[in-house]
Design brief:
It contains five helices and two strands, in the order E-H-H-H-H-H-E. Helix 2 packs across helix 3. Helix content is 55%, strand content 9%. The protein is globular and about 35 Å long. The longest helix has 11 residues. The chain has one domain: lambda repressor-like DNA-binding domains (434 Repressor (Amino-terminal Domain), Orthogonal Bundle). It has 69 residues and is mainly α. The protein has a two-stranded antiparallel sheet. InterPro entries: Cro/C1-type_HTH, Lambda_DNA-bd_dom_sf. It comes from Chitinophaga silvisoli. This is Transcriptional regulator.
Length: 69
């Protein structure tokens, strides 16, 4: 899939654990894990907004497009 999810990168930059982010955002750690591994088929804008707010970042810091070759 050409969309890369960089939640792990932002978590490391903010020195935050996945469990803490999941609690702040209001999603399960299992759903956050699915998102982090790129297995999610979509993300709600409400969830993306909450992640960006919790990590003090922009959507572009989390989502990255890489063309398939």
């Amino acid at each position: 899939m050409p969309i890369i999810i960089n939640v792990d990168v932002m978590l490391a930059k903010r020195k935050m654990q996945s469990k803490e982010l999941a609690e702040i955002v209001g999603i399960t750690t299992a759903n956050l894990s699915i998102l982090k591994t790129g297995k999610a088929r979509g993300i709600r804008f409400d969830t993306l907004e909450a992640i960006c707010k919790a990590l003090d970042c922009q959507p572009g810091d989390i989502l990255e497009y890489v063309a398939e070759q």
